[in-house]
Amino acid sequence: MLLLARIILAIAINMLALWVANALWDSVDIHGFWAYFIGAVVLGIANAVIKPILAILTLPLIVLTGFFGQNFGWLVRHVGSLTAFLLLGLALPVAAATLLIYYLRRQRLL
Q: Is residue 81 part of a domain?
C-alpha cells in the first residue's frame, strides 16, 4: 500500500508542476484533466528510467572531481613522481571504494 501511495503522490506532484508550467509560460498549452494525468505519468516513467542511468554515468566524474577538488593543493605540493600520483590520486580512492562496497555488502546494507 505504501508503494501505491508514493506513486499517487508522484503523479499528483507532476500534475501540479505541469499546471504551474501551463500557468507561467504561454508556450505551454495543456487542457483537461487527462492531459495533465498522462503528462504526469510520462514524466514519472521518464524520471524512474533516466535518474538511475544518469547517476551511474556521472558517479565516476563526481568522485574524481570531488577528490581532486579537495586534495589538489596537497597533491601538487607532496607528490613528486607519476607513480606516486597514480597511487595516491587514483589507486587509493578506488581501493577505498572497493573496501567500502565489500563491507556494505557483507553487512547486507548494499
A: no
